[in-house]
Structures are given as C-alpha cells and as structure tokens.
Amino acid sequence: MPTWNLAPVDLCGVAVALPKRVVTNADLCAVLDSTPEWIEQKIGVLERRFLDPEESLDDLMTEAAAAALAAGELSAAEVDVVVTATSSPDYFFPSVGITIADRLGIDTSRIVDLTQYACAASTYALHLAACLLQEQGVRTALIVCGERVSGITDPTDRTTRIFFGDAAAATVLRRTESGGLLAYDLGHSPHPAVNLATPWWAPHAEVGGRTEAGRTYMNMDGKVVWDQAITHVPASVRATLGHAGLAVGDIAGFALHQANVRLVREIGKVVGVDPARVPITGDVLGNTGAASPLTSLYKLATAGLARRDDVIVLGAIGSGFFWGSLCFRLGADLGWAG
User: Fold this and answer.
1) φ, ψ for residue 115 (rounded to 5)?
2) What predicted TM-score, i.e. pTM, was given to this entire model?
C-alpha cells in the first residue's frame, strides 16, 4: 500500500542536537594516511562533530527529543508513541526509548527501538510511527534518531573514519484531518558491504571482524555503497512520487541522507532536482547515520522550504541494504529548534 490511504498523519516539528566538539579534516589526518584537501575533494566533508568519551548519546538524543516537542508546541504528556533509532547506542539494553521517555516524563507503553537499520532508520521509523498512529485515540508520535559513529569507526581507517560524525535529531508525527503523508516506498537487498560485528562474533565474521582491545569497528566498501545508493535512492524517490501522483517539480525540498556530499549531489542530478532544493548538511556534519535525513529535514525547515502546503520528500539508504522514501504535504509550517 505505497499510496497512504489510512488516517492522515503529518510532521509538526523537527530538531537537531550536536556535540560541541568540532573535528576537522586536519584533526583526522593527524593519525590518518591522508590530507585535508584529499578528503574535501573526495567526499565534500570539511568537518564533523564527535562526542567526547565521557559524553552520552542518550543525553544527546534526549536533548533532540525535547527540542522537537518544543518545535511542535507539544508537551511530553501528549506523546502516545516513541520510536527511536540508532546503530551505536550507549547500551545494548536498557532501551534508549525507555530512557528518553523516562527523562522527559512521557507516559506510554508504545515504545519501539530500531537498532539495525543504520542510515535508513529514519524512513523506517517514520513509516512505523505512521502505522502505530492508526490505533484509535493515539495521536502523537515522537521519532528520535542518533548516532555515535565515532565510537565504531577505526581512527586509523581512511575508508570509514573520514565520512562519519555524531549527532541526534528528532521529529514529531501527528494525526491530522487531511494531507500529511501521501505515499512511501521501502525496499531492501541483502549485501555485506557495510557491516559491524559484535565483539564475540568478530573473530568468526566472514567479512570484516576488525577488532582492537575488545572493540569492533565498522567495515565499509565505498564503491558498493555508491553503486547501491545511486541506484536505489533515485528509484525509491521516483516510486514515491509516482504513488503520490506528483512530479519532481512539485516538490519544495528533498531531505536526503547525507552519505557524503558528492553522493547527495549526484543523487539529486539523477532525480533531476534543482540543487537549491536539496539541502546539504554533510559538509559540516558528515554522515550522521540514522540522524542524517532528519538533519536535512531540519535544514529544509530553517531555509523556508517546509511551509504550509509545501510537498517534501525524505529519502535514505543504509547498511543491509535498506532504503526508503516518504512524501508529505505539510498542513502547517514545520516548526524547528536546535
């Protein structure tokens, strides 16, 4: 059912929370076999944010969640659903969703954590939240995405370290009378090109399995990622627009996953989008994983490209591979904070 024919749901707030520590390409090159110029030319990233070792991703995600509720002019008491997404949590358990709900005073049993959707997690989280909002009397869902990718990339590995940054972002989805989510597309194709083994499985992993002092690090085949992204993201966006009965020219803005700046721009070209309608956050944040598409959504809102009656598209791809896109006609200006 890619055309959304269920009860209408709409976005009503978005927020971003960032670590204070800025890490430049020059900082990375102190231990990497690379140069700042090469990194900028290759992937378009100038800097990113890293959490310090004593800082908590739970704290950052809670900050983003609180800000998104404020942006949507909502209270914690109004939240009926919490969906969180991260592939790099502080703890395997307890649940980050329960932690955020407890800290903000959200009283609901509808809490779901998505842990293995990587950079595609926000699209799946939004779709899941939209489905959960179909229950009678359930009106408001809080979606919170965050990553501490600095903790799962090898500081000496140029194939991963230069791409990623840490961040959290959140949005709110609400039942509405009309408009909102128009259509979506979700897909997957198994491939081990991006993987992160657990410490106990790393010695046996068929692909990757790099460890250091009991820690495991992400492995990534950049060429495969590029090929998968340039194939599936444009196709997904086109499918979603087709289901919605819309053309590229009807869309005010595209909030795309920031795998790297060059790739985002290339996807925009393939889709046929004016670059001005595809915000870039990866130049100063890097690839922030699950949070990434919501940082793009935030930039759409701050740039005035997410106003009442605007149609916007979110799109992403992540390890697995999973990919997806969603199309919304906004019922009101999208509030923002952060």
Assistant:
1) -115, -10
2) 0.97
Tell me: the pLDDT tens digits for 262-297?
Answer: 999 999 999 999 999 999 999 999 999 999 999 999
How far apart are alpha carbons 1 and 183 in whole angstroms?
9
> What would the pLDDT profile of 161-210 be if each residue is shown by its tens digit?
999 999 999 999 999 999 999 999 999 999 999 999 888 887 777 655 55
What residues contact residue 182 under an 8 Å CB cut-off, 6+ apart? 3, 4, 243, 244, 246, 311, 327, 328, 329
Is residue 5 annotated as a catalytic residue, yes or no? no
Which residues are CB-neighbours of 278 under 8 A, at least 6 positions away?
253, 254, 256, 264, 265, 268
Angle, CA of 43, 165 and 161, to the nearest 5°: 60
**Residue 257 annotated in active site:** yes
What is the distance between the alpha carbons of residues 205 and 234, in angstroms, rounded to a whole number? 32
Q: Catalytic pick from 25, 195, 260, 287? A: 287
Known catalytic residue at 219: no
Q: Are 229 and 292 in contact (CB under 8 A)?
A: no
CA–CA gap between residue 61 and residue 165 (Å, rounded): 14
